[in-house]
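User: I need a structural model of Phage protein from Desulfosarcina ovata subsp. sediminis for a docking pre-check later this week. Nothing fancy, just the predicted structure tokens so I can convert them on my end. Input:
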Amino acid sequence: MPEVKYQDLPFEEAIAFFRQKLNLPTATWTDIWQAMHTRAFVVAGAIKADLLQDLRAAVEQAIAEGTTLATFRDAFDEAVAKYGWIYVGGRNWRSRLIFETNIRTAYAAGRWQQMTDPDLLKLRPYLLYRHGDSRYPRPQHLAWDGLVLPADDPWWKTHYPPNGWGCKCRVFSLSKRELKAMGKSGPDRAPDNGSYQWADKNTGQTHTVPTGIDPGWAYNVGEKTDWTPDVSKYPKRLGDYLSRELEDLS
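Assistant: Understood. Predicted structure tokens for Phage protein:
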């Protein structure tokens, strides 16, 4: 199958996914958890609304127009200088993390919407997991390479990629004919690789995470959620800001 590069964007589903997010200032990356990210644009430590909006605009340009990491870094540097933002990590690492995380999740969400379209599912009812071309591959992701499951298998609710920071794994839809061409008489059985416990140092809360998945990534970015932030739990100024954000998106 041909490699799809993120610079091949845009496509409507990925753009729509990103544009329906609201800006949510946060102090740490665990301030919102898993599927909440499908509704909120966050950058850990970006608590100024204007800073967050400038970063969002640069990310949206990349998703909608296919601009490069270099272009995003120019906008990142401008925002840092403009607002005096002191962020965690080196400039190259942090800018790449923001850029690639948002690009990959938007792409994955858009692909999920395409692959689970009812009309397409009639022709291509299976999904194939493919390991990405990572320099340091995760052993569990490699083990899932070639796994074929029905599109409605519950496994995809927690294992649809990306499955961690920097994860480049992809999913492709398959027809029954393509499944047979792979030498399979039917779909595989969803693997049960167990789980592990991860403690959030900021809150002290412990989460159960599937083996092979990074903390905070055990969700399907393409599945819609009804979650919205409870504005009453935020300080008045931030609560008022979030209320305006929600009104603009409604």
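Before docking, keep this in mind: Confidence is low (pLDDT under 50) at residues 1-10.
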